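Risk register update: the risk of archive-format incompatibility is retired. Evidence:
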Amino acid sequence: MEKRGGRGRASVHEDPRETRGLGAVDLIAIVVVIVLLGTALGDGSGEEKEAAYRKAVALNPDSASAHETLARYLLSRGRAKEALPMANRALDLVPADENSVDTLAGVAGGLGKCKEALVLERRAIAVASKKSPRADEMKKRLADYEARCGSTAPAAASLAPAPAH
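Archived output:
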């Protein structure tokens, strides 16, 4: 057997994970994020949860899920202004993700931007799967925005660009 394997050729001295594209650093980062999110979801204080969510974002700056989760947490604490950059980043990373669009709609609502919230919630519902576990919640929020804003809204929201097709 050879001492060093090339990409795709495992050897005795090569970590087999390397051949699948996952290095040890990647796996460690994934484990750290799982541990941090477990802490955040457990019995930790609000400060500990927020710190864990922020750490997950720092470790995975290209993770829409990490940004969206932090944005939702901040929004649940009445901190929509702080949540806005996280929600926007999540949507930038995955423009057609129903959860990211829904979160940005919530942020818009939290900032008092009723018309934008209405447009974004409609967009979230449009991209959501009919089997989405959050579909009913999104429809309830849409009804709330329609009651507060009226059922008409501008054609485009100023908080987020429309997804590229």
